[in-house]
Automatic annotation (TrEMBL):
Residues 1-293 form the Sulfatase-modifying factor enzyme-like domain. This is Formylglycine-generating enzyme family protein. It comes from Herbiconiux aconitum. InterPro entries: CTDL_fold (IPR016187), Sulfatase_Mod_Factor_Kinase (IPR051043), SUMF_dom (IPR005532), SUMF_sf (IPR042095). It comes from the Bacteria. Coiled coil: none annotated. The lineage of its organism: Bacteria, Bacillati, Actinomycetota, Actinomycetes, Micrococcales.
Amino acid sequence: MIDLPGGTFRMGSTAFYADEGPVHARTIASFALDEHPVTNREFAEFVEATGYVTVAEEPLDAAVFPTLSDEERAPGAMVFTPTRGPVDLHDWRQWWAWVPGARWNEPFGPGSRIDDRLEHPVVQVAFRDASAFATWAGKRLPTEAEWEYAARGGIDGAAFAWGDDPDSADDLRANHWQGRFPFLNTGAAGWVGTSPVGTFPPNAFGLFDMTGNVWEWTSDLYTSRHQPADAQPPERGLRPDLALPVAEEEPRRVLKGGSHLCSPEYCLRYRPAARSPQSDDTSMTHIGFRCAR
């Protein structure tokens, strides 16, 4: 873990997406953060030690989803699949599919493996899974404010973790989509999909993959705009517009950092201020986490 000093920084942005505002001062106490996202190797050690079963490995609760068939309630997760060519970028269902049997150690469905991806970030982990790992490790998930403070690396108010200028193919600073989304990805430093942690340069705090590679869970509930630091948490019951069923009382958490699927022409979110809502019970091939203490 990297020990980070406390401080006050400008959180948020008004230059990109509406939910990143307003820009406001936020003070953070000193804390420690994992140097990189939790890897497949580390998560496998957790499962081996505890026998933990992830959300994606459990069928949906018949009491919560009584109208679904047993087949529709089968364990599974969301998997990204490139399209054959250009598509309407407003319809994400064209490149995301619910895959029965997809889980953390078979992230793309039955038969897929992580044997050669042990140093990649673990994916297909829901909020409960990330929280359980953190508790086992004697840690916790970071708050959104802590995460953004850490991602900025002391470069206050910059658009990216490394400054205001975008990176380039000749000087990639993060693992994000290269080419035409969602059908042509030439790879970031040779990697299509996730990359081993530490492949790309760290930020000024020495933290790797704070933007790009995988989105990361935080402990905060999502609101459509930043709330004052002393505001009450939002009510439960927000429902994301997902193709898979979501329980009425399922909240959404803030994801931070963007992922290997972020493309400037579609999702310019490999930035410290960027944020995204995610249902607590949903696992996907581009979401991981890291821990704080």
